[in-house]
Design brief:
167 residues; alpha+beta; DNA Binding (I), subunit A; four-stranded mixed beta sheet; 4 helices
Length: 167
């Protein structure tokens, strides 16, 4: 079984995706309540339960970090899974991230210098700035304060139907 579980905040907002094993452990520890279940059963010699599809935290997470962590998937989410040069919406597999000011020209890997880019545009731009390559950015890259919660579910439609109501 390779089922994933959607973890919700106590306020029923998507928080992150976890494995069903972690969800079951959290449930037995009393940290979450199971909201939705899959049809598949998890069996042991003394117990049989249905795999959790959606769980909700019973209490807020303590010490939640401020700000959004820099990561490839968060860059794609910030940029709405669109190439910031041609504007085409793509799946995460069809995107990479691009240094606006290339590293060879002193550009850093930070929010303000990274954008989502399709492979074609990235190849066209190469080791140049957008101006040097005759390309324009749809919008300048900024460090986001938060990301839309709906970005937790991929845009390729590969997610359980039981998650749709929560995302």
């Amino acid at each position: 079984m390779t089922a994933l579980t959607l973890l919700l905040t106590p306020w029923m907002r998507p928080h992150k995706i976890i494995s069903w094993q972690v969800a079951v452990t959290m449930s037995f520890l009393g940290k979450v309540e199971v909201i939705e279940e899959y049809d598949e059963e998890i069996k042991s010699p003394s117990l049989s339960i249905r795999a959790p599809a959606v769980v909700r935290l019973k209490r807020p997470l303590g010490g939640m970090k401020r700000g959004v962590k820099f990561s490839r998937s968060n860059v794609f989410a910030r940029d709405d899974f669109r190439c910031q040069y041609c504007g085409t919406r793509r799946s995460a597999r069809e995107l990479n991230y691009d240094h606006v000011v290339p590293r060879v020209q002193g550009g850093k890997t930070i929010w303000e210098n990274i954008v989502a880019s399709c492979y074609d545009c990235n190849g066209k731009k190469r080791g140049r700035t957008p101006e040097q390559a005759g390309m324009k950015l749809l919008r300048p890259p900024i460090k986001p304060r938060s990301l839309p919660m709906t970005t937790i579910v991929s845009h390729d439609g590969n997610h359980p139907e039981s998650w749709l109501h929560y995302c």
